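hey so u asked for the seq, here:
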Amino acid sequence: MINLSKGQKVDLTKGNPNLSNIIVGLGWDTNKYDGGKDFDLDSSVFLLNGAGKCANDHDFVFYNNTIGANGAVEHTGDNRTGSGNGDDEQVKVSLKTVPAAIEKIAFTITIHDAEQRGQNFGQVNNSYVHIMDADTNEELIRYDLGEDFSIETAVVVGELYRHNGEWKFNAIGSGYQGGLASLVRDFGLQA
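ran it, structure tokens below
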């Protein structure tokens, strides 16, 4: 298993030529604070073309649109509490059946209604993404985001991308203000 640092890129399929089905697990904990409102964090996936944009709304995969890339990408559903151990949300990816037009798959976490609830990623800790071989349950890659966020309400955690016919993973860890709407606009869709 490889532990990544922010900005690090690692090969996924070149060293694992038989790897075809992966699970991308995302997890987080929320700090205790006296705001009195529940946290609801959501993972979303953006299926991007060579220009880094979604071709259409179907390339935005989340709890209300759980299947993308002609079935190659599946969001397994919304976890509204984030409590307990293990992944809070998961995305299944069939690497060999992702359509060729999709060159990057970006994984994000956002805080639902963050502005109205006065919440941000400064109140979130233990955030991570890891990639497992779905066939063996072996953990291949893990990226712990650390505690370097404050007022952000959305984070691009990392992305799978194609390079010379192989899949790689880039640990991005970039925070955004403006929540999910800002990500949707950045990736070429209407918010």
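The longest helix spans residues 179-186. The longest strand covers residues 166-176.
lmk if thats what u needed
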